Amino acid sequence: MDNKESIRDMIEKKRSSTNITSVTEKFMPKFLLAIATISILTTLGIVITLLTETINFFRDVPFLDFYTGTILKPLGDDAQFGVLPLLTGTIYSTVIAMVVAIPVGLMAAIYLSEYASDKVRRILKPILEILAGIPTIVYGFFAYTFVTPLLRSFIPALDPTNILSPGLVMGIMIIPMVASLSEDAMSSVPNSMREGALALGSTRLEVTWKVVIPAAISGIIASFVLGISRAIGETMIVAIASGSNKDFTFDITQSMQTMTAYIVEVTGGEAPAGSTIYYSLYAVAMTLFVFTLIMNLVAQYISRKYREEY
Fold first, then answer.
1. Which residue has the higher pLDDT, 267 or 13?
2. Is residue 79 helix, strand or coil?
3. Whole-angstrom Cα distance, residue 223 to residue 177?
4. Which architecture, in CATH terms, is 72-305?
5. What is the dihedral of CA 208, 228, 68, 256, to 10 degrees?
6. DSSP 3-state assignment of 73?
7. What values do phi and psi take at 157, rounded to 5?
8. 218 — alpha (psi -120 to 50), left (phi > 0) or beta?
């Protein structure tokens, strides 16, 4: 009887656990779908908010005047809203940053992937990635208090706040992103391709430039595009070190304002809700959103088009 009862108890426990498992299996997909939907709804909420407030802005300011205007004077009775000064500052800071980040990051990735030993790679890569963990506000003060005075000793005409200094520091900040993603792309290239090229008499440098980099080009270019997107959206460095000059200029030694710095200025200033300057914040934010969206779409397109599968 004891054996029969124990067997019956085991069967009941098995049925009970099976029922719980069945309920869990039915519940978990719905729960995970709800969690995944949160990110989609959040994105939709952001887009709807930006579109709604941007439309309110363009009711007061003509679309063409905003995107072709070279004068940005958001305050005063004769306020003018031309976004070209902000676009110029954003593009200049991004270009300067990528002039620093792309060659340095790519060279670092080549060394880590093709030349460094495993021991050296384990030491250098974490040290390089420490740069990515430094708060951007620290980079901003570094650009303002150290890099700018240093540059002024070589360029006396450099303004105390300028676009050159934060651009260079942004490039230093983006180096770990470019180096890490490029190194991962190059490390994924099969060693058989390297060994085959070496067996044919190629030098290690020739293998790197003619075999490894072409094979990893999709990941490398994607790292460049993501770096550009990161530079476009940077806020604190340019807000601290680039100044708030809204003049339309191409002189990188002068103070310029980027789109993100303008958003910070308007958000922290006296911009009453419902005013034109308040709505201009959303118009600039929408422009910035479109810029970063295009960069991400380009990165995805390049990754899919030039992806090599081994």
1. 267
2. coil
3. 7
4. Orthogonal Bundle (1.10)
5. -110
6. strand
7. -80, 0
8. alpha
Question: At residue 297, what is the residue type?
Answer: L
CA 57 – CA 86 distance, rounded (Å): 17
The H or E element containing residue 206 is helix 204-207
Domain locations along the chain: 2-60, 72-305
* pLDDT higher than threshold 90 for residue 192: no
Q: Which two tokens stand for residue 95?
A: 């270009």
Helices 276-305, 2-60: axis angle to 10 degrees equals 120
| CB-CB contact of 92 with 84 (8 Å) | no
The span from the CA of 143 to the CA of 161, in Å, is: 10
Q: pTM value? A: 0.82
What are the residues whose beta carbons fall under 8 Å from the beta carbon of 69, sequence distance 6 or more? 80, 81, 82, 83, 84
Cα–Cα distance measured from residue 214 to residue 306, given in angstroms and rounded to the nearest whole number: 9
Give the pLDDT confidence of 114-165 residue by residue, as tens digits.
888 888 888 888 888 787 788 888 999 999 999 999 998 888 888 888 899 9
* 295: nearest Cα among 235, 232, 219, 234: 232
The burial of 267, by beta-carbon neighbours within 10 Å (0-12 exposed, 13-18 middle, 19 or more buried), is given as exposed
Dump pLDDT digits (tens) for 43-74: 888 889 888 888 888 888 888 888 888 888 87
- Residue 20 confidence (pLDDT) above 80: no
Taking each continuous run of H as one helix and of E as one strand, the counts in the chain are: 14, 2
